[in-house]
Structures are given as structure tokens and as C-alpha cells.
Automatic annotation (TrEMBL):
Cross-referenced Gene3D superfamilies: Endonuclease/exonuclease/phosphatase
Superkingdom of source: Eukaryota
GO CC list: extracellular matrix
Record-given protein name: Uncharacterized protein
Organism of derivation: Paramuricea clavata
InterPro entries: Endo/exonu/phosph_ase_sf
Cross-referenced SUPFAM superfamilies: DNase I-like (SSF56219)
Length: 333
């Protein structure tokens, strides 16, 4: 079976081994250990030649462990694929470098992070990992990184022949990762880690619009209702937050939609109170009326100004208020 992408840690490769000697038919992205560190920590990502990919050096940094690269699927969002290896006896700086690398990602990016952590004292039984009673600062820091980046683990069970869970397939868009399977390494290669196979769903087919004449969805505005009489419920605000597209850019307030969506239940009561106060008084927060203006290239050459269109990025909260009001003044027949 030919895989599209192969990620490997601890290969002990050196500069005397050429890329075309490693895996023919693949583009090899490599990253060796730093000069002052010992051990087999050379990272390798092999991407089938038919797929476009490039290293993201700005995300890696000069002294960081992660190998970060961008994939270029056809007509899809370009995801970031990262490979991270943490040596068993490394200090906390290795994890800090990972955190710095992930902090440089754009908020709307899709991230898949394959890692060999060597951190067995982490409890993965809940939605988000937590340190066990035997854990120390390294485990706590890693769990904080996972929570801050909204990463989800896609592996259930141990990944090492001794029964420990040392490897992870993390992603900030859970539905991207499917069909996770394990292969016993003793049948293929001398390793004490299981081989992990999984699929990355990069493209999603849009549903076609229905042309059936039996479907009739009408929205009738409540024209007899004044704006100051509208009362928005906490449930309506929470539903609007849960329906946010996390790939959208945020506005001048710098609050990303993913944060609002993940915290929808906790912040909906306060937002509901603010929204109803705004409607009752007829005043909107100044911050919600500010915009970030950017130019988007439309077509043809990039030099002429006429080939660009301007868009305004409002605060996500102002869009939530607008959607809540829209839902309140429209009846669905």
C-alpha cells in the first residue's frame, strides 16, 4: 500500500544520506537535532511527489524541535502538518518551543500535529488531557498547550508495546481525522512503537441545492415589533455562538470565533444581557462598530488595484448580535 504522507521520528539519519535514498517517489522534508543534543531525533516527513507541500520555516524557528509544513490540496484549505519529537530526558524548553511554534499559527488554520511525546503520566480519558498524580511541570505545560490550541486527540489506547501512550495525532478540527488504525511494528520494522495509520479529509463536497417544488421555506418579518421590544434569550445566543465558522477571520477586538464557540455555554448569559441592554437603549458598543479593512485579490494580475475588492471585518460579537436579532424578527413558515 502506498501512503500519501509518511511521518517518522528518531531516524538517526545524517547529511551523508540523500533524500532520494530514503523513499523514492516522495518529497522528503527533514529536520535534524540541534548540535548540543544527543539521540536519534531526526524528523522526516515524506510527501508523495504528486502532492504539493512546503516547509514553514517561520513556524519552526531556528532552534525549535517541531517540523512544520503546509499542504496544498486542490480547491481546499491548506492545512498545516506538524511533526514533533520530545526526547525522554529533555528539559521543559522543548515544550516551550512547541508552544511558541503553535502560537505563530494563524487563528483560522487547520492543524494536524503528529507527535512522539514521551510523556506517559498524562490522563487521556477525558475530552482534554490532564496530568496524573505522578506528573510534573512538563505534563502540566503540555496539557495547557493542548487546551490553548483547542487540539483534540484522535488515538484511543496505548501506542507503545509496553502499554504506554507516548504518541499523539492531534487536530484542531476533529472531523478532519478519520479511520485511525494501529499496525504492530514487529511485522514490518524494528520499533517499539505501533505504526499509526489515519486519513485526513481535506476536501468536503458541498451539498447541492434542492430544486424540489415541494419545499417551501418562507421567512416572514415581524413588522409590528419595534427593535427596543426584542428580547433575546440565552439559548438563542448560545446557538448563534455554536454555529460560528471557526475558519473565519476575527475583527479589531482580536477575539477569534473558535474561542467564542468553545466557551459558548459560559459566556452566553453575559452576552445575552449585553445584547438586550443594547436593544433596549438603542446603543451599540463602539468596539462592535469598528472594522478592519482588507483588500482581496479577485482575478488576473496582482498589480492593478482594480483587480482587488475591499471587505470589512467586524467584531464577531457584532455579527452574533445581528444574527440573534435576525432570528428574533423573522418567523419561519
Amino acid at each position: 500500500m502506498q501512503y500519501d504522507i509518511v511521518c517518522v521520528c528518531e531516524t538517526w539519519l545524517n547529511d551523508f544520506i540523500l533524500d532520494n535514498e530514503i523513499l523514492p517517489g516522495y518529497t522528503i522534508h527533514r529536520k535534524g537535532r540541534r548540535d548540543n543534543m544527543r539521540g536519534g531525533g531526526v524528523h522526516n516527513v515524506a510527501v508523495r511527489n504528486e502532492l504539493r507541500s512546503s516547509k514553514k520555516l517561520l513556524l519552526e524557528g531556528e532552534q525549535s524541535e517541531p517540523l512544520m509544513m503546509e499542504l496544498y490540496p486542490v480547491n481546499c484549505t491548506k492545512p498545516i502538518l506538524g511533526v514533533f519529537y520530545r526526547p525522554p530526558n529533555s528539559d521543559v524548553d522543548t515544550l516551550k518551543e512547541l508552544r511558541n511554534s503553535l502560537d505563530r499559527l494563524e487563528e483560522s488554520c487547520q492543524l494536524v500535529l503528529v507527535s512522539d511525546l514521551n510523556l506517559p503520566d498524562i490522563d487521556w480519558s477525558m475530552d482534554f488531557p490532564s496530568p496524573t498524580s505522578q506528573a510534573g511541570f512538563k505534563e502540566e505545560l503540555f496539557c495547557d498547550i493542548i487546551a490553548d490550541q483547542f487540539l483534540y486527540e484522535n488515538i484511543d489506547g496505548p501506542t507503545h508495546l509496553r502499554g504506554n501512550k507516548l504518541d499523539c495525532v492531534l487536530c484542531n478540527v476533529p472531523e478532519l481525522i478519520t479511520d485511525v488504525n494501529f499496525v504492530n511494528p514487529t511485522d514490518l520494522f524494528p520499533s517499539d512503537h505501533y505504526f499509526i495509520k489515519f486519513d485526513i479529509k481535506l476536501c468536503f463536497q458541498k451539498a447541492k441545492a434542492s430544486t424540489s417544488k415541494n419545499i417551501n421555506l418562507n421567512m416572514t418579518p415581524k413588522t409590528d415589533q419595534e427593535i427596543s421590544q426584542i428580547q433575546i434569550s440565552e439559548y438563542e445566543v448560545e446557538q448563534c455562538l455554536n454555529n460560528l465558522d471557526t475558519s473565519k477571520a476575527y475583527g479589531p477586538d482580536g477575539i477569534p470565533p473558535r474561542l467564542l464557540k468553545e466557551c459558548s455555554k459560559e459566556i452566553s448569559p453575559s452576552l445575552c444581557s449585553l445584547f438586550n441592554k443594547s436593544l433596549a437603549t438603542g446603543r451599540v458598543s463602539v468596539g462592535w462598530k469598528q472594522t478592519n479593512g482588507i483588500s482581496i485579490h479577485k482575478k488576473d494580475r496582482v498589480e492593478p488595484v482594480t483587480n482587488y475588492r475591499s471587505i470589512s471585518l467586524l467584531s464577531i460579537l457584532s455579527n452574533v448580535l445581528e444574527r440573534s436579532v435576525f432570528n428574533s424578527i423573522c418567523l419561519y413558515d
